[in-house]
């Protein structure tokens, strides 16, 4: 089985999912060159803790290769299966190229890294032709199954335990027991929240936490160093928002999340998958709900998890533990319920027997050679140097710009429904405390005190 990866999050997820394959499978991993390919340092971080079959990747990460070369390697020496762990447009391109160029093609497996609830149509759309689509909770499988049927796509979803949400001891490093636990780690996300003012507010809460708790290191854990790419674009990096007078115990660091959790007193985030990694280790956690609860924040899934909180909880040092009633349906099901390996084995047997059936694409109109060139250029950017790609870009870019402007104009005329589906909540409300959980009922005064430098006590 060969894994193909590109960005930081897809590299981490793809490699670690690949590593959970049966012990007698031969595994390889290759990096595809895309506009957001992970740097060697990001790959070394992503590949931390891999099993013996892939452990060498940590010290010698594969250099990115272009799509045509990767597909040609698969054609010349076809594996039994390929894990397409690539960002959406690139995944669609690679899956399409394998279908077109490899007669006795391998089984194609794809999926999404981390938390994928609520279901996302684009995720299905780009990966509809994969033979198997891996998800990580019963709740996700139900949601994607329903959305696929509504969109005219035959469901092809399988369940796997999220590699980062395994047992409480599986992810801990060998030196974890000897490490000092002195850090509150904030898991940053590149696009959640999206607005600069909201991200600056998060930094102010972290500054207030560092001042209130000089015994802790408050770590803004970033996903990329300056100049490195991420799966999602980051317009307002947190390091740029840290004030010059921030206390010395507020630090910005990158590196493997697992190493940060070895020192963590608690993990704080808006909705990063790292919160599941923390919960699996038994590290207290907090998913901040100050901006509400909704699809755009990727935090609906945490309702009733026991992990929801707000900035007051953060500064007061009040963190949550995951509720057993939430776990089985949300990422912590028994591994005996995983079916992705069994279903993949069955698909490989069909391939060997010549009965593997090609799935239909979700994209109903391909538009011929020029349309494929546009999709390729859109997926690969500068990594596609073909003349046809540049021609497609010259024709397609103005059309795309007009469409985007039209959508913005329509949004002004007919604004979309509010995206916040629930109000902020807190650990205090969950525990039956007397403090209010509503921003309009007093929490705003408390938050204002925190960010204005007043005594949070």
Question: Any descriptors?
Answer:
37% helix; 457 residues; DUF6716 putative glycosyltransferase; Rossmann fold; DUF6716; alpha/beta; 3 domains; six-stranded parallel sheet; 16 helices; disordered C terminus
Our count of domains comes out at 3
The CATH top-level class label of the largest domain: Alpha Beta
Helical percentage = 25-40%
Q: Which second-level CATH architecture of the largest domain applies?
A: 3-Layer(aba) Sandwich
How would you summarize this macromolecular structure in one to three sentences?
The protein is an alpha/beta fold.
Description:
The structure is a single chain. With 457 residues, the chain is α/β, with parallel strands linked by helices. It is 37% helix and 12% strand. The protein folds into three domains: 2-161 and 333-353, 3-Layer(aba) Sandwich (Rossmann fold), CATH 3.40.50; 176-330 and 426-451, Glycogen Phosphorylase B (Rossmann fold), CATH 3.40.50; 368-413, no CATH class. The strands form three sheets. The protein has a six-stranded parallel sheet, with helices on both faces. A six-stranded parallel sheet has the order 9-8-7-10-11-13, with helices on both faces. The chain has a two-stranded antiparallel ribbon with strand order 12-14. β7, α7 and β8 form a beta-alpha-beta unit. α1 (8-18) packs parallel to α2. The termini are far apart.
List the helices and strands and how they pair.
Blueprint: E1 2-5, H1 8-18, E2 28-31, H2 40-46, H3 67-76, E3 81-85, H4 88-101, E4 107-111, H5 121-126, E5 132-135, H6 138-150, E6 157-159, E7 183-187, H7 196-212, E8 217-221, E9 250-253, H8 257-262, E10 264-269, H9 274-281, E11 285-288, E12 293-294, E13 308-309, H10 311-316, H11 324-327, H12 340-353, H13 368-380, H14 387-413, E14 420-422, H15 427-430, H16 443-451
Parallel strand pairs: 1-2, 1-3, 3-4, 4-5, 5-6, 7-8, 7-10, 8-9, 10-11, 11-13
Antiparallel strand pairs: 12-14
Helix pairs in contact: 1-2, 3-4, 4-13, 13-14
Biased composition (Low complexity): 422-440
InterPro entries: DUF6716
Region (Disordered): 422-457
């Amino acid at each position: 089985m060969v894994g193909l990866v590109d960005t930081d999050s897809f590299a981490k997820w793809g490699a670690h999912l690949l590593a959970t394959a049966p012990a007698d499978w031969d595994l390889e991993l290759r990096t595809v060159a895309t506009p957001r390919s992970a740097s060697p340092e990001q790959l070394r971080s992503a590949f931390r803790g891999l099993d013996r079959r892939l452990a060498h990747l940590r010290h010698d990460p594969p250099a990115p290769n272009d799509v045509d070369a990767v597909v040609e390697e698969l054609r010349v020496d076809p594996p039994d299966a390929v894990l397409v762990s690539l960002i959406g447009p690139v995944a669609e391109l690679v899956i399409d190229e394998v279908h077109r160029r490899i007669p006795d093609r391998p089984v194609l497996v794809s999926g999404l890294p981390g938390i994928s609830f609520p279901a996302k149509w684009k995720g299905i759309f780009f990966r509809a032709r994969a033979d198997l689509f891996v998800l990580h909770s019963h709740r996700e499988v139900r949601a994607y199954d329903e959305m696929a049927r509504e969109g005219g796509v035959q469901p092809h979803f399988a369940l796997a335990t999220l590699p980062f949400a395994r047992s409480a001891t599986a992810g801990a490093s060998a030196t974890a027991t000897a490490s000092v636990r002195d850090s509150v780690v904030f898991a940053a996300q590149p696009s959640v929240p999206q607005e600069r003012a909201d991200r600056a507010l998060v930094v102010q809460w972290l500054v207030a936490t560092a001042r209130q708790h000089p015994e802790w290191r408050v770590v803004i854990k970033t996903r990329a160093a300056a100049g490195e790419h991420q799966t999602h674009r980051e317009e307002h990096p947190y390091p740029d928002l840290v004030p010059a007078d921030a206390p010395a115990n507020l630090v910005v660091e990158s590196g493997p999340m697992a190493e940060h959790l070895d020192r963590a007193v608690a993990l704080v985030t808006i909705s990063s998958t790292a919160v599941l990694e923390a919960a699996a280790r038994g590290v207290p956690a907090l998913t901040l709900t100050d901006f509400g609860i909704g699809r755009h924040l990727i935090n609906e899934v945490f309702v009733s998890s026991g992990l929801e909180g707000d900035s007051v909880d953060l500064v007061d040092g009040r963190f949550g533990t995951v509720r057993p009633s939430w776990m089985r349906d949300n990422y912590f099901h028994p591994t005996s319920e995983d079916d992705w390996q069994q279903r993949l084995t069955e698909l490989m047997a069909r391939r060997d027997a010549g009965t593997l059936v090609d799935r239909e694409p979700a994209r109903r109109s391909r538009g011929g050679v020029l349309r494929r060139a546009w999709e390729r250029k859109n997926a690969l950017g500068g990594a596609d140097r073909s003349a046809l790609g540049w021609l497609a870009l010259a024709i397609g870019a103005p059309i795309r710009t007009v469409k985007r402007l039209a959508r913005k104009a329509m949004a002004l005329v007919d604004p979309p429904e509010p995206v916040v589906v629930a109000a902020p909540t807190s650990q205090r409300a969950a525990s039956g405390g007397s403090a209010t959980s509503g921003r309009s009922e007093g929490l705003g005064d408390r938050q204002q005190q925190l960010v204005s430098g007043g005594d949070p006590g």
